[in-house]
Write a structure and sequence with these properties.
- The protein has three helices and three strands; from the N terminus they run H-E-H-H-E-E.
- The chain has one domain (11-73): Arc Repressor Mutant, subunit A (Orthogonal Bundle), CATH 1.10.10.10.
- A three-stranded antiparallel beta sheet has the order 1-3-2.
- The chain has helices at 15-25, 32-39, 48-60, and strands spanning 30-31, 64-67, 70-73.
- Strand 2 and strand 3 form a beta hairpin.
C-alpha cells in the first residue's frame, strides 16, 4: 500500500487518504470496532488491513491515541 498519492494512486487509495478519512469519522471517543463499523464500506477502505494501517499511521503521527481500548483524536 502506498503512503502518498501519486499520478497512478488517487488520494483516497493512499494510506494518507485513509488516515484522513478515519480522522474525519472520529466524532469523539471510539472503540476500534465502532470506528471500523462506520468506515468499512467507504471507497478505498474496504479491507481491515487498510484500516489498521491507517490507524497505525495516525498513531505514529501522534494524531490519535489509544487509552484503555478507546481511540481519541489529539487536538493539539
Amino acid at each position: 500500500m502506498r503512503i502518498l498519492p501519486d499520478k497512478t494512486i488517487r488520494l483516497q487509495y493512499s494510506l494518507l487518504g485513509v488516515g484522513g478519512v478515519l480522522v474525519r469519522y472520529m466524532n469523539g471517543p471510539e472503540t476500534v470496532t465502532s470506528l471500523w463499523n462506520k468506515v468499512r464500506n467507504l471507497d478505498g477502505l474496504n479491507t481491515y488491513e487498510k484500516y489498521i494501517s491507517g490507524l497505525t499511521l495516525l498513531y505514529s503521527l501522534n494524531a490519535i491515541r489509544l487509552e484503555n481500548g478507546i481511540l481519541y483524536k489529539n487536538e493539539d
